[in-house]
Amino acid sequence: MHVKKTLLSCCLLSAFSSLAATSLSSNDPLTPYQWHLQNVGQPGFTASPGVEGEDLNLLNTDLSGIRGAGVTVTVIDSGVELSHPDLWRNIAPGSLNLLTGSAQPHDHSGHGTAVAGIIAAEADNNFGGRGVAPEANIVGFNYLDAQSMTAWLQSHGAPLNGTASSRVYNQSYSSKPAMFINVDGEQSLSLQLKDQVMRNVSLDSNNGLGALFVKSAGNAFNQYDTVIGDTVFQVLPYENQQQFNNVGLPFHNANLSADNASFWNLIVSAYNADGQLSSYSSVGANVFLTAPGGESAGQQAGIVTTDLSGCDNGFHTFFGPTDIALQASGLDQNCDATAAMFGTSAAAASLSGAIALVMSANPQLDARTVKHILATTARKLDPDNSGVNLSFTDRNGNNSSYNAIPGWQQNAAGYNFHYFYGLGAVNVDAAVQQALQTTTTLPALQVTDWHNSDTELTIPDADIEGTTGTMQLNDNLTIEAVQLKLSVKHQRMRDLAIELISPSGTRSVLLSPRTGLVNVGSDTMQNAVLLSQHFYGEAAAGQWQIRVLDTDKDSSQTLMYSQQHGWLSMNDSNNSTDGLLLSWSLRVYGH
Questions:
Q1: Which CA distances in Å does 395 have to 392, 457, 546, 553, 556?
Q2: Are the CB atoms for 527 and 185 separated by under 8 Å?
Q3: How far apart are the C-alpha atoms of 330 and 339, rounded to whole Å?
Q4: Which CA distances in Å does 18 have to 11, 14, 59?
Q5: CA nearest to 345, candidates 287, 434, 275, 268
Q6: Coil, strand, or helix at residue 56?
Q7: Angle between the 344-361 and 428-437 helix axes, to the nearest 10 degrees?
Q8: Taking 90 as the threshold, does the pLDDT of residue 230 lie above it?
Q9: Which residues of 516-541 are buried (b: 16+ CB within 10 A; e: fewer)?
Q10: How much is the mean pLDDT over the chain?
Q11: Cα gap 517→494, rounded to integer Å
Q12: pLDDT bracket for residue 180 (50, 70, 90)
């Protein structure tokens, strides 16, 4: 059997290498509008054309017949319409309604059905569009309707028996806390249980081949909604007395959710049809890759995918300009599709479909090796993006400029990375070609203990130098990711920037300043964990540095709104005392 698979891979590789560039072939009427599959500059039911080539780059993969066959993707979402005309042939056994216990995870919003279609809508059936991996299988859960720990366990691969069939778990959702999460606090038991389940599924399921968890970074670059107590608040920046002004910096960091700081989740940001960060996309050092997510306003293309069937359901209940144009085209008369899907939800689905293609190309590869292939083949998106510099007046009244978000950097192992895009945009053809050539897997994963420093350091107010701590690691590992756990006391957390510098000199900004953190009931961040992908492939051994700096001495405002409380102004006054870095710890995942 091994010989047959090897011969098949060789034949596929030979065919793959000899393919000539052409258009994506499909008789599905909406495929020409799916810019994320092949971007030729089409407007996609909007007035603005995209930029040719800014897509998943999957043409040769598709032409070679690699379409995701044999790979099951679990969609953990609002549910999935299993009987949808463009999905039903690709539905695998195992879907579950977490509210009723039935095998029908009814989708009332259309979100999960749209996600499933991006991943694996059927191709060449003269209907709708197609998925990234149109021969992959789908299993659906309506977890967003039943967010208990039991529901989480059922939908994320537990109990584990070593033969679970899903190779990819798509989580097109995110949380947006207003403060750091204490991983050793009251949520610690649930976080530990989740971590253990994801570890087991990632490494041991599918008879040792494992699985990959893909998760949205979030849609909170400009503003976010959060729950404090029982109240839902909308949180907005108000820099320089201007609503929605955050001086070009992200207002919420993808790292603030404890789930998003987990090594086991591949966090994905979103880019648009112009090949730039989608206007809403959350970002951070925990972002592993970026993938197509589109835009929402109708001026730039969203993602064309499946919708709940019928014109009284799903996205069609709130016709936007893109779906009005779709209906006017006559290509979707029964309202089975939408052109209005967008978000890091769509980006996660795009990445999940891409992973299914890579796994289908070489089914013998374990999940970590697939992840490594994605990292090594990612392309530099938006290469001229120079990041963001923040100007502020320091404690002595002098003007200071802080490189809050660097442009593209290259680490000591040769990997390019960016705060917006992680290691780059997923590049399907390059990843599949490498998968077909790969016959070895990564060495076994090793996870270090936490290395701790309890030396208390003062964080001077509005000081470009900040405070710096050092730590020596002697672990002889090649890094796959690094986690930082820290405790900080500060009266206005949104002033802070946090950096980690590796022994090789690579600088990773783990928290950019002006993040919309709100000190609610406490001025202490206790045992918060942040993840960085920026040291991928570097050596772990040597002296590490942490740098924490305060970037504001002036009055400022963050606005919060709820129906119950109306408008509230937060963070008005500067901190009256210098902050403190109470402790920090490092943990390395590597081999």
A1: 10, 18, 22, 6, 15
A2: yes
A3: 13
A4: 11, 6, 13
A5: 268
A6: coil
A7: 30
A8: no
A9: bbbbeeeebbbbbbbbbbbbbbbbbe
A10: 93
A11: 5
A12: confident
Q: Which domains does the chain have, with CATH numbers?
A: 2-382+420-437 (3.40.50.200), 446-590 (2.60.120.260)
Per-residue pLDDT band at 160 (split at 50, 70, 90) = low
CA dist., res. 127 & res. 297, Å (int):
26
Mean pLDDT value of segment 559-577: 88
Both structure tokens of 402: 């802080």
Residue tagged active-site, from 26, 345, 502, 508:
345
Catalytic residue among 55, 62, 77, 550: 77
The answer, yes or no, to whether residue 5 has pLDDT greater than 70, is no
* CA gap 195, 189 in Å, rounded: 10
What pLDDT score was predicted for residue 10? Answer: 58
Given the residues 106, 111, 316, 372, select the one marked as catalytic. 111
Q: Nearest 5°: phi and psi at 259?
A: -60, -35
Q: How confident is the model at residue 11, as a pLDDT?
A: 56
Mean pLDDT of 126-147: 97
Dihedral over alpha carbons 522, 528, 534, 538 (to 10 degrees): 140
Q: Which helix (H) or strand (E) holds 169?
A: strand 166-171
Residue 318 has what pLDDT? 78
In 3D, which of 171, 131, 155 has the Cα closest to residue 353?
Answer: 131
User: Residue 1's pLDDT is what?
Assistant: 37
Residue type, 414: G
Residues near 547 by beta carbon (within 8 Å), at least 6 away in sequence: 466, 467, 468, 498, 499, 500, 501
Is position 36 annotated as part of the catalytic site? no
Radius of gyration over alpha carbons of the chain, in Å? 23
Residue 345 a catalytic site member: yes
Q: Is 77 a catalytic residue?
A: yes
End-to-end CA distance of the chain: 29
**Could you give the CA distance from residue 327 to residue 338 in angstroms, rounded to a whole number?**
9
Order of strands, sheet of 224-228, starting from the edge strand that comes earlier in the sequence: 224-228, 231-237, 558-562, 566-570
